[in-house]
Specification:
The chain is mainly beta. The chain has four helices and 19 strands. The chain has a single domain, classed as Mitochondrial biogenesis AIM24 (Double-stranded beta-helix, 4-Layer Sandwich), CATH 3.60.160.10. The strands form four sheets. The chain has a six-stranded antiparallel beta sheet, with no helix packed on it. A six-stranded antiparallel beta sheet has the order 11-12-9-16-19-14. The relative contact order is 0.16.
Length: 227
């Protein structure tokens, strides 16, 4: 498999498959493709796993695309301005990503939903409740918002992040949700009730744009029929 990421801040990835090679994505994720590629819709691991994936922003059904001849090309585009990041997945490189970040992956990559350790905090913490775990073997692609900042946390080092700005992190990093302290901070601070806490060792990647916050800000400029 070969790939080419293009498009700047409105990115897409063109993947070239040889005969027998496959790539899968969520239902409706393909943008365009050449002849010679067969599509199969499935639940990728069973219906219950499909239901679990739906909590993390993906569809219950996944689509697997398999090349019937060499040099078949298929393209997947990001849904928002930002970056498409390729990840090489193996036993030493497993990642946890924000919900909805998964774009596509080779068949050897396993995708499953994971939940915060604190169910109650996650339930009201919004974006930090359900995450996506990438394991197995192969190349996966994430679609991320805005620009990325990589931070390498030492053992025991912590960073607190607005949940919407968390892109992905190595599986070695501990993840939890912390309540914002102080009544005035909660009421007037504008950060909500919870922050994501990441504890090293391991690398984390943060994104400069929270798509949820951006949509909220744009909403007031969208005309409505209300008088």
């Amino acid at each position: 498999m070969k790939y080419d990421i293009f498009g700047g801040m409105l990115p897409a990835v063109e993947i070239t498959l040889n005969k027998g090679e496959s790539i899968y994505t969520q239902s409706g994720g393909m943008t365009w493709m050449t002849d010679g590629i067969a599509m199969e819709t499935n639940t990728k691991g069973g219906f219950l796993k499909g239901i679990a994936r739906s909590f993390s922003g993906d569809s219950i059904f996944m689509a697997t695309y398999t090349a019937n001849n060499d040099n078949a090309k298929i393209t997947f585009a990001s849904a928002a301005p930002g970056e498409i990041r390729p990840l090489n997945i193996d036993a030493s490189h497993e990642y946890i990503a924000q919900k909805g970040a998964f774009l596509c992956a080779e068949n050897g990559v396993n995708l499953k939903s994971v939940f915060t350790k604190s169910f109650g905090a996650g339930l009201v913490g919004g974006e930090g409740f359900v995450l996506q775990e990438l394991s197995g073997n192969g190349t996966a692609f994430l679609e991320l918002d805005g620009s990325l900042k990589e931070i390498d946390l030492a053992a025991g080092e912590r960073i607190k992040v607005d949940s919407g700005n968390l892109a992905f992190f190595e599986k070695s990093v501990e993840y939890s949700v912390e309540t914002v302290k102080g009544f005035k901070n909660i009421l007037f601070g504008g950060e909500g009730l919870f922050l994501t806490v990441l504890k090293g060792p391991g690398k984390v990647w943060l994104q400069t744009v929270s798509l949820g916050e951006l949509a909220s800000k744009l909403r007031k400029y969208i005309p409505t029929n209300n008088n």
